[in-house]
Amino acid sequence: MKAETLKLGIIERLMKVQDTSTLQRMDQLITQAEMETRTLESMEAIERRDVVSIHEMRRENKEWIKGNTK
């Protein structure tokens, strides 16, 4: 099933839900799934060494600020 079709089906089902506690639980489940996905993506980036050190990030931020402020 295509992602867009699945999204529309979920939205249609959610629109029919009236119970606040059910909607809150659905929100919690979606948030948990999003966090799990972000965690996996981060772990994969670390494995690929597709990350920068905090020192490098600070240096890049300082350079960006210098170039983007008047």
Structure commentary:
There is one protein chain. The protein has one domain. Helix content is 81%, strand content 0%. It starts with a helix and ends with a helix.
Q: What is this structure, in a nutshell?
A:
The protein has 70 residues and is mainly α. It has helices spanning 3-16, 20-47, 54-68.
Keywords summarizing the entry:
70 residues, mainly alpha, 81% helix
Give the SSE layout.
Elements: H1 3-16, H2 20-47, H3 54-68
Q: N-to-C terminal Cα separation, in Å?
A: 50 Å
Helix coverage percent of residues?
A: over 70%
Q: How large is the count of helical segments? A: 3
Low-confidence stretches: none
Silhouette: elongated
Mean pLDDT score? 94
How do the helices and strands follow one another from N- to C-terminus?
Answer: HHH
Q: Can you summarize the main beta sheet?
A: none
SS-based structural class? mainly alpha
Q: Give the total of beta strands.
A: 0
